[in-house]
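Listing S7. Sequence submitted for prediction.
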Amino acid sequence: MGPVGTETARAYSRRELLQLTASLAAMGITTSLTPEAIFGQARTDLKGVTIDYWNMVGVQNKTVRRLSEAIVTAFERRTGATVNTTWDSYGSIIGPKYRTSFKGGIRPTVFDASGRWTGQLRRFLRPLNDFMEGSWDAESREGTAWLIPLVKRQNQGYADRDQIYDLPFGLVPQAPVLTRRDHWEKAGIDWERDWPPRDSDHFLELLGQLREGAGVRYPTEVYGKIWDAGDTQLNGWVRSLDIETSGFINADWSRCNCDSPAWREAVQFYVDLFRKYKFSSPNSPQSTDEDAVELLIRGRKSLIHADILNRGTLLERMPDELRDGLFQWAPHFPISGGTSGSQTFLAFVTFHIVKQEGPDAALKEAAAWEFVKEWFRPENMIAYSKSAGLCARRDLWPQLMGSPDGYAEAVTRMVVNPGVWANHPKSVDIQYNLFAPHLQQAMQGAPVEKELRNYTREVNEALRA
């Protein structure tokens, strides 16, 4: 049983599975669900074992949902196990659903989430170190080794920070730039000279040219909605000004950083894009990057920041235009004068195995690990990267390069001394539930310094509680 309001996966016929693989293949995506897996005889090493999987990444776009279905089915066909999949949403963990479900005894065997949201569930999770060291292929282990220090930094406030509870399989450098090249041509902007944006001053210049020359009234967008306000382009701008205070809380998790000069300057620029320059739409206090991507597709936006998770939407909706290079990605850029050398936070899409109880606990946990390993197969890592981000296995990145939209080149260039958010038990409230209302107030005219001061006080009280 999954959280209330979610949909559980059903069995698929062979015909439906062939249609599923064909639809992915049409977008250049090949997973471990091969015809041999569809028609072949499953191994029996996990026959009779059932695991419950809560999938969150599939909510981002239809392509990732189909990708998830294919990988789940490939694992079932390969091992003989049964996977009961619940399709969930980010709101379930940002809101109270996951924490109340886990406390009430409603728990999956394995789930995916974002690594900085799971501190609230840490006591229910099984460390993965023994699996990673003892029963993982060398290529996957070595390809992800560079991430382990970042995972430990994300969990540095815990005494057991060397235990890996959250294993990244996908990476989201937040947030690259995405544009429509035809708008540049219409506005008469020199692509070779001016792409990509160099800094915030250049960004403002380009937005003005796009508004006047391409006729796009609101050529970009800033996001005030609760789950995008705290983790899209804003944080990279803060980090470009000062690495030390760029996180929401400080290194020892004792106080909030958000009354610092870097935060005040970056948030003011963010708000000014909406209020002063009017480059962002009247809906900005409630907008999301998914909304902005939709408007970009319809030609009503020109130059936005969007998480690479949205690439699957472009694959789904605009495949010909994507292949023709109409859409282009580029790395995030700094606030003018920023000298930190880093302008991104790296979000992890992570797998977690929940501690099991009863006589078959060890078997279920082992089956969950085998399921996690399925996602790290090269074909699945590459398929995920094409539809939803950047895979955790760095050894596979060369195979991602050369796409007409330049997505892999853009996001891999961003992974240079990235920030990682603290996985504090209250991180969801700190980054989302408490922050967004203050940013929305600033977007509606309240003084930025006052809102950040009030937010900082609330976070400090929460950290002391």
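Caption to Listing S7: primary sequence and predicted structure tokens for the chain studied. Residues 1-5 have pLDDT under 50 and may be disordered. The first strand starts at residue 7 and ends at 8.
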